[in-house]
Specification:
Chain A: One of its GO terms (cellular component) is membrane. With about 350 residues, chain A is α+β, with helices and mostly antiparallel strands. Chain A has twelve helices and seven strands. In chain A, the strands form two sheets. Chain A has a five-stranded mixed β-sheet. Chain A has a two-stranded antiparallel sheet with strand order 1-3. In chain B, the strands form four sheets. A six-stranded mixed β-sheet of chain B has the order 6-7-8-3-9-10, sandwiched between helices. In chain B, strands 16-17-18-13-19-20 form a six-stranded mixed β-sheet, with helices on both faces. In chain B, strands 2-1-4-5 form a four-stranded antiparallel β-sheet, covered by helices on one side. Classes of the chains: A alpha+beta (about 350), B alpha/beta (about 475). Chains A and B meet through helix 2, helix 11 and strand 6 of A and strand 1, strand 2, strand 4 and strand 10 of B.
Amino acid sequence: MKEKFRFLSVRVILLLAGILTGFMLLLCYALYLTRGQPEQIWLLMAASVLLVLFFYNGYYGIYKPMQETKRVERQFASGSVLNDLLKIRYPHCPESEKVNQRFFEMLGTRELINVSKKQAEYLALQNQINPHFLYNTLEGIRSEALSLGVDSIAEMTEALATFFRYTISNVDHLVNLEDELANIENYYYIQQFRFGKKLQLNIQYACSEELDEMEILQYRLPKLTLQPVVENSIYHGIERKIGEGHLIIKISVTDSRLIIKVSDDGLGMEAERVKMLNEKLKSLSLDDVNPDIDRKGGIAIQNVNNRIKLLFGEEYGIHVYSQVEAGTDVEISLPLVKD
Amino acid sequence: MRKEILRLNHVTLEENGERYLDNLDFYILQGEIMGLIISDAKGCSQLIRLICHNIPISFGGVYYEGDRVNHYSHADYTDNRVYVIEERGRLIDSLTISDNLFVMRKGFKKYIINSRVLDHQVELLMAELGLSIDPKRRVSTLSAFERCVTELLKAILAGCRFIILDRISNFLSQMELKQFQDIIRKQAKRGTAFLYMGNHHQEVFQIADRAALFHQGIIWKVFEKEEMVETALQPYTISFDLSGSQVREPMEEAVLKLDGVHLNGKEPVGFSLRKGECLMILDTDNQTWEPLVEVLSGSRGIRDGRIYLGERVFAGEEPTDFFKEGVAVIPDDPAETFLFRDMSYMENLTFLLDRKVWFGNIKRSHLRSVRKEYMKKVGPCIDSGKIDRLSLRERYGLAYYRIHLLHPKVAVCVQPLAKGDMYLRRYVLDLIQELKNSGISVLILTSNLADNMDVSDRMIILQDGKVAAEYAKEEFYKVGW
């Protein structure tokens, strides 16, 4: 009990309960005074009005907002939300609001974004390879292949160099969907050397009268949003599947969102695993923003999801639908951003 | 760019400690017909309440016409402008169509009502939909289809840009459904969004622009238009194939025969049900099955024709107690209308069993052997004191096993698969198969094809009250949705 008294909210509730009791007593006293004295009825009425006003204001003005704030704090404490703490409608006091803001500054959202972006650089970082050294070496291989007349090696090397150039350089910026899809097509080209006809990619646009393909391609999104998702679909879905695997990227635009759905008809996932993954994806999670564990299944998608939520808010992000033997759909929801 | 009418963002809804909606994430666009295939009905009513009334949620947010109307941190119980068309109906039976559409509308403040003007407006609205229903008719006299159309008009007049259609095939016949779906398509082109909820994927695929598979409060998969094929759904469904179960071949001898019986249509109806056979009668326009059920359950007689039950012949307008003659009718919602809530499981199961024993004297030994036999089939729920706490599946089991125990010559199943989700439908099919295997001839009266085909040996299609076609089991593929 003594432990509970430490909290100001408990003290406020107790104080309110005390005042309410006081008003009740006042009402009883007014009732006592008015017995047999109808001219004193105004006293009873005034006490009743005061009690009703107190109850109404106490409930809607203090109790309900307090509950709302507690609910957000509870979700934050359980790790389900992050940004909502900054959007609390009824903070306990100006100082507590400032504390929250300071806390977020200390946590360094910018730093978090940077950590998350490191998934894009993981190859270079993990192997401590200088990107320029990598490009130069690849260019060397390409020249050698051309001079020996092995065009296929030259083409593959060129595709790989293009892929690394896009992946490693300038990860800070938002890019056009056109660039992101060009990178995916390049990545698909590289993967085809390994998978051949087993892997089929199809990009579809949900165009309308007001919006054609060219306009859709101008929308912007965080760089390397799609590649980790496509990579996951190939390695966890299609690679172990017997027969052809189809990868479909469907892009739709609504009045407020850019929705990209990456579907594969690979092995799919068990319902429990999908549920756990979506549970993690529904909120911004800092636990997995660790470049060291990027390669473990599903982490890449979580990092993309974190990046989207950090940049645009918790109402955007990724949701996964999957079923064993049916395949997996990854739906990426982004705000509409144009130059 | 199409406007998002509704968006559910990671919505989790819990009531009394149970999770009904789990991380639900989907959106519906303006003018879109979004299908919702209900694989397991848990969470359906909560979803409708959430969309309509912004009830408190445990996590996530709801956006309606671009505005956030509900959030886990605060729910204000405001109503969204959404209309639900469901079996229960929201019209006032004793009022006319015009009164329901205009006078009962929110914000209608006229003191003097010119009914001629209102009727004329209703006629214009009906004409827009290609219909001609008399606006002066009382709602109580309307057919299910006419009610649905009236409700749709009411929704449009109330300015609802989003309408939920809750399992309308449960109460509309095949033809009415097609007609209503055409109206929905037209309305969707005008910008109204629909959430089309249905138990059968064929039905939903036929109308929806996109379709979500709803299972125990989660969206399992969202199908795009090009994915709406039978094979795409296979990994998500349970098998309805009954070929593995023991099947008793029907005999040629007719156990029930209707010869030139006038029911409701202009033409007389005639068919015969063979011993041990399961015959499905598909009433495409809902004209015949109701009067037929009334006749077979002993509520009314027949004007013309004869009914043969084995060697016995029945005719005349005097109602006949066919139950005495060995015909038992299982109504369309047996869990609600066929059982007695204040009686125990065993009392319900053995109800009317006294007619089968000498002098109506059911001995304890009879009850013991019934309990022993059915315990194996239904499990420990057989000892339930009251049936209130039983699940829907257990109540369906009880209703069908009561008939199984009574062992009539003919069991008439009225719309047996109309109500349940995928798992319940599969269970009902097993129960019907069990009736068949015990030698009972089964007559299925339905207005929807659905999965009834899996258990039936023969199908008769009734149109305008007369037999339009007859198919043997191997010809069922000719009849599609």
